[in-house]
């Protein structure tokens, strides 16, 4: 209910159609780039940058004008799309989606600036812009139909990026990526329609795809669980959660560098975001029911990803498997279903995008110079490329979760939340942190340490200015968010609180929050302040498992 | 045994006159028949005029065909406003002694058929010139076949339905064999004719049995009879009749297991004709199917629904799985069209107004998509339709990016990617299935769509992703010699552009078409008492 009020209050913003504009700008840009002559690659690139950067600027404007204290949806827009079916163009942003929107807004212009494609620049930029429009759309959609449309449409540009600009076995990887994800979302479409139909019966009004209304519908327990499973399958493939992850190493490894960065930075978040926004919000009871399964799979993913990453001979594949492990953490935090866990999970979505994106960027640079990603072929690079080695170290440490860098904050909150909710999962997951140190440090050691054993490694060029600026742009948030995450947490927390209140109201089970003393330590650590301490305080401790 | 017994019983009984509740129109409402007349009569004129004044008409056959179909569609649209406006307009009505219905449903299908003829004619123009077969016959046969389709969609009597079916089919048998110098075309026409005649026999026998069971061939009367007494003497007779009718329809719409003709005929027949088969013939077939089963036999839904559901599942899975194994694009599209028929059958099987509306939307959207698709296939296949293998599409994205991009849009539409009309077509069918409680059927349909996606992706891969030579790996597949550019006649380009634009516009704003499809359906359900 509070969400409705919040939505109504913030409906009038200084910029009436900000979110529509945010989605349309890159989409229009894609069409514009497609119309430019392919003889003019520079113009294509500049136009692509202009459009994606405009979207990025709009995202920053959004961040700037975001009401920190408000946990509901802001910048809400609502227009009828298909009248007969209750489908609307409904958009809105809250703390859960805000940073993912900003990340999607900024990562694309960055990628366009930092990486030039090996061939055919024109279609490449057109697909990238379409991908940006699609991913922004996923994060701002408040209508299940619109969400599904965006969720599916991003497959097309990514499929082309992997298939046309990728390496090695690219068509196989592209096809596998497309079919796996389509398989997941095929059943989600049935789930969406089933939800809309049963909710229409439950509410008594006409059919609607508005998630804010659907979240209020009383569904029979088993119906909700079944529909949740349909949604969860789609998200689990997209995340990907352990046994459904097999498309990821192929897609990540064969994708061009830009594709890998976007895949890691944004595409993988569609699944985890889906779990928070649509899983927990629409099916609170079913999520709680399924939580043990996802917590287990999350932990398995963490350990499995780490062990398999350790064994990789291909540097890019190693980073790809490390994603499986990191996403296991995010799943873990999400299904801890308490303030720390969910907040940590959302933070980690952004952090993983930054650090793994940066890792892929660096691996791409190494590949560009050496035309190999075999760890055995690379050695002693530190001698010839000290700056790259230093940058790699920082990014790697962020990925490992070293305190003072962004990765730590999210991972700590996740483990904290998981520990409170279900401590043994946290204990096992913590092993994954150690394993992350193992595979990344070992890889680093083999690639950068020692003396170069071949001429190519000896003459390995260090970072050029443009490359340095590109990686540097990612290092800034990595360090800033590690040292001072408060601005981020204080925007995420209120929305998470609203979500948890909603879950509590629907299921009658309070989130497993730790003792007040423990909570305040977390807040002191990261400076998270939210207004409704009292309400949480009342529940705190009572339901601690 | 019991069937024979009831047959005998039926024969022994004196046929009692059934009092009809429909207000019979003694005279013929020519205005209502206008779209039909506007298709059939000018087609005859075209045929004769072209042979008498060969010099005058040469080169304008396609223009004439497009003009004729366009005029018929325009009058149908005028009719639309009269029959769907229940307050001020005339509303739906029957004419010719209640044998022919004019309602939103029939008008909708009429327009779909006209559009199918227009697209096929535009594609046929360049094709016939290229193959040295230019003449008025193809266009006249297309128009005649469409007029048969209009009769099928409007028939309110099983005999009239059969007439429509034959008028629809016979020109297409001829068209399939119309390439004089390709033996594959001859074979396709012959095969289609033999199997089609066989299916017509089934259909006719079904009509006879239904007449035997209910004492009438009028759909309204049959429905009324069955409503008054669901256990009509000879229930088995009725069911057997319905089953035979289903076989006839199943053949026309290419449902598994009545699909065996499809791949061979699609491969052998001239591509513009196949375009019409996939869009026009399918639309007419489903028009009849929905009217007979969803409307007339609505009371017997428990009897026929399991069978239609079974057909739908077989068609969905059979079509999409077998499509994966194909290497010839025309065969591939044949199986994919079977799989699309499966989706349409889901819409029929759920037996609801939403299902019927979804079928209409699907037919309109699919007709455009497949029309454009076969336009591309016609162009790429080249003289004599030699190049129909998947290799013919290799590197097309590099050589002719606009053509490849247009084809990609159509392929993704058939895959069911959002923001194309194909997605919303599937969405509507799945929604109807879910609303009817058929969750598992919806899931099977969606999973078959994923299997089917492989087929379309393979074509996209061939167009965009194989010719590229990776500078570092050098393991990209390199085509030995660059093939000659695909010739794109203006009419064909127009057809392709129009279908692509329509596919995208309907994809972005599906409301444009759902409103119409939704208006067309309740009418058909309400008009027959």
What can you see in these coordinates?
The complex is a heterodimer of chains A (545) and B (529). Chain A has 545 residues and is mainly α. Chain A has one domain. Chain A is built from 24 helices and 2 strands. In chain A, strands 1-2 form a two-stranded antiparallel sheet. The radius of gyration of chain A is 22 Å and the shape is globular. Chain B is an all-alpha fold. Chain B has 21 helices and 2 strands. In chain B, strands 1-2 form a two-stranded antiparallel sheet. In chain B, strand 1 and strand 2 form a beta hairpin. In chain B, helix 4 runs antiparallel to helix 5 and helix 12 runs parallel beside helix 14. The longest helix of chain B has 32 residues. Chain B is globular, with a radius of gyration of 23 Å. Classes of the chains: A mainly alpha (545), B mainly alpha (529). Chains A and B meet through helix 6, helix 7 and helix 8 of A and helix 18, helix 19 and helix 21 of B.
In DSSP terms (H or I, runs of 4 or more residues), the helix count of chain A works out at 24
Task: Calculate Rg of chain A over CA atoms.
Answer: 22 Å
Q: Roughly how much helix do the residues of chain B carry, as a percent range? A: over 70%
Low-confidence segments of chain B: 7-12, 468-480
The SSE string of chain A, one letter per element, is HHHEEHHHHHHHHHHHHHHHHHHHHH
- The secondary-structure element order of chain B is HHHHEEHHHHHHHHHHHHHHHHH
What fraction of the residues of chain B are assigned to beta strands by DSSP?
under 5%
Helix-strand category of chain A: mainly alpha
How would you sum up the major sheet of chain B?
2 strands, antiparallel
What is the number of E strands of chain B? 2
Shape call of chain B: globular
Average pLDDT of chain B works out at 85
Q: Name the poorly predicted regions of chain A.
A: 1-12, 516-521, 527-545
């Amino acid at each position: 209910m509070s969400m409705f009020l919040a939505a109504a209050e913030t409906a009038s913003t200084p910029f009436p159609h900000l979110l529509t504009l945010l989605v349309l700008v890159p989409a229009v840009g894609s069409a514009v780039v497609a119309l430019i002559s392919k003889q003019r690659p520079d113009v294509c690139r500049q136009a692509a940058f202009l459009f994606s950067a405009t979207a990025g600027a709009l995202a920053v404007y959004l961040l700037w004008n975001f009401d920190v204290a408000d946990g509901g949806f802001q910048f809400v827009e609502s227009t009828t799309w298909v009248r007969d079916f209750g489908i609307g163009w409904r958009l809105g942003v809250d703390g859960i989606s805000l940073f993912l929107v900003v990340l999607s807004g900024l990562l694309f212009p960055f990628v366009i600036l930092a990486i030039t494609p090996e061939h055919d620049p024109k279609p490449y930029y057109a697909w990238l812009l379409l991908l940006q429009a699609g991913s922004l759309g996923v994060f701002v959609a408040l209508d299940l139909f619109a969400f599904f449309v965006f969720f599916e449409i991003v497959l097309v540009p990514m499929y082309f990026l992997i298939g046309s600009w990728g390496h090695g076995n690219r068509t196989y990887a592209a096809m596998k990526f497309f079919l796996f994800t389509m398989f997941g979302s095929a059943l989600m479409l049935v789930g969406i329609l089933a939800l809309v139909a049963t909710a229409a019966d439950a509410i008594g009004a006409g059919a609607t795809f508005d998630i804010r209304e659907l979240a209020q519908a009383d569904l029979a327990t088993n119906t909700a669980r079944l529909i949740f499973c349909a949604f969860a399958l789609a998200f689990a493939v997209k995340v990907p959660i352990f046994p459904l992850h097999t498309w990821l190493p192929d897609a990540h490894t064969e994708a061009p560098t830009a594709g890998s960065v976007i895949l890691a930075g944004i595409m993988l978040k569609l699944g985890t975001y889906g779990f928070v926004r649509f899983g927990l919000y629409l099916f609170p009871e079913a999520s709680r029911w399924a939580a043990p399964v996802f917590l287990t799979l999350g932990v398995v993913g963490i350990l499995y990803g780490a062990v398999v990453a350790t064994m990789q001979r291909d540097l890019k594949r190693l980073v790809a498997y490390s994603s499986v492990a990191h996403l296991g953490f995010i799943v873990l935090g999400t299904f801890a279903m308490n303030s720390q866990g969910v907040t940590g999970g959302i933070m980690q979505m952004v952090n993983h995008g930054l650090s793994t994106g940066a890792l892929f960027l660096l691996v791409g640079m190494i590949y560009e110079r050496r035309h190999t990603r075999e760890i055995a072929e690379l050695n002693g690079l530190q001698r010839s490329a000290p700056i790259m080695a230093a940058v790699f170290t920082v990014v790697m440490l962020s990925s490992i979760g070293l305190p003072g860098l962004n990765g730590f904050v999210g991972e700590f909150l996740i483990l904290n939340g998981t520990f409170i909710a279900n401590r043994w999962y946290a204990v096992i997951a913590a092993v994954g942190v150690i394993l992350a140190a193992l595979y990344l440090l070992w890889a680093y050691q083999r690639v950068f340490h020692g003396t170069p054993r071949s001429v190519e490694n000896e003459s390995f060029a260090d970072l050029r200015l443009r490359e340095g600026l590109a990686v540097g742009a990612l290092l800034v948030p990595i360090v800033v968010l590690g040292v001072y995450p408060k601005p981020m947490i204080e925007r995420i927390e209120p929305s998470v609180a609203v979500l948890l209140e909603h879950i509590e109201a629907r299921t009658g089970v309070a989130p497993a929050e730790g003792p007040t003393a423990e909570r305040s330590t977390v807040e002191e650590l990261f400076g998270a302040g939210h207004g409704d301490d009292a309400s949480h305080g009342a529940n705190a401790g009572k339901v601690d498992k | 045994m019991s069937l024979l017994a009831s047959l005998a019983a039926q024969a022994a009984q004196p046929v009692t006159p059934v009092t009809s509740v429909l207000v019979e129109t003694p005279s013929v409402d020519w205005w209502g028949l206008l779209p039909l007349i506007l298709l059939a009569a000018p087609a005859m004129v075209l045929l004769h005029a072209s042979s008498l004044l060969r010099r005058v008409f040469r080169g304008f056959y396609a223009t004439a065909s497009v003009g004729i179909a366009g005029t018929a569609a325009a009058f149908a649209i005028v009719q639309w406003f009269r029959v769907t406006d229940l307050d001020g307009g005339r509303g739906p009505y029957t004419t010719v002694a209640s044998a022919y219905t004019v309602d939103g449903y029939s008008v909708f299908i009429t327009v779909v058929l006209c559009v199918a003829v227009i697209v096929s004619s535009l594609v046929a123009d360049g094709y016939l010139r290229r193959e040295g077969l230019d003449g008025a016959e193809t266009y006249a046969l297309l128009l005649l076949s469409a007029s048969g389709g209009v009769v099928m969609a409007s028939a309110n009597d099983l005999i009239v339905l059969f007439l429509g079916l034959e008028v629809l089919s016979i020109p297409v048998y001829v068209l399939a064999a119309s390439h004089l110098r390709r033996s594959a075309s001859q074979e396709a026409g012959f095969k289609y004719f033999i199997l089609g005649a066989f299916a017509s026999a089934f259909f006719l026998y079904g009509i006879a049995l239904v007449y035997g069971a209910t004492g009438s061939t009028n759909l309204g009367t049959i429905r009324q009879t069955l409503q008054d007494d669901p256990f009509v003497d000879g229930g088995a007779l009725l069911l057997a009749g319905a089953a035979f009718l289903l076989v006839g329809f199943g053949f026309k719409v290419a449902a598994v297991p009545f699909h065996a003709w499809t791949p061979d005929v699609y491969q052998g027949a001239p591509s513009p004709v196949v375009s019409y088969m996939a869009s026009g013939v399918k639309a007419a077939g489903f028009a009849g199917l929905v009217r007979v089963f969803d409307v007339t036999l609505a009371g017997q839904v428990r009897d026929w629904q399991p069978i239609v559901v079974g057909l739908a599942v077989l068609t969905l899975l059979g079509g999409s799985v077998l499509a994966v194994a194909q290497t010839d694009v025309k065969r591939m599209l044949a199986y994919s069209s079977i799989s699309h028929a499966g989706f349409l059958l889901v819409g029929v099987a759920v037996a609801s107004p939403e299902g019927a509306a979804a079928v209409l939307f699907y037919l309109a959207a699919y007709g455009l998509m497949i029309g454009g698709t076969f336009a591309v296939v016609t162009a790429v296949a080249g003289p004599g339709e030699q190049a129909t293998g998947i290799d013919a599409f290799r590197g097309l994205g590099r050589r002719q990016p606009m053509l490849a991009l247009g084809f990609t849009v159509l392929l993704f539409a058939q895959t069911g990617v959002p923001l194309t009309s194909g997605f919303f077509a599937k969405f509507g069918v799945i929604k109807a299935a879910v609303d009817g409680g058929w969750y598992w059927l919806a899931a099977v349909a969606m999973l078959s769509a994923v299997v089917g996606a492989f087929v379309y992706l393979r074509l996209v891969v061939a167009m965009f992703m194989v010719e590229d030579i990776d500078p570092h790996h050098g393991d990209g597949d390199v085509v030995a010699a660059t093939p000659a550019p695909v010739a794109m006649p203006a009419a064909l380009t127009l057809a392709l552009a129009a279908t692509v634009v329509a596919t995208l516009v309907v994809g972005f704003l599906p409301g444009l078409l759902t409103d119409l499809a939704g208006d067309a359906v309740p009418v058909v359900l309400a008009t027959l008492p």
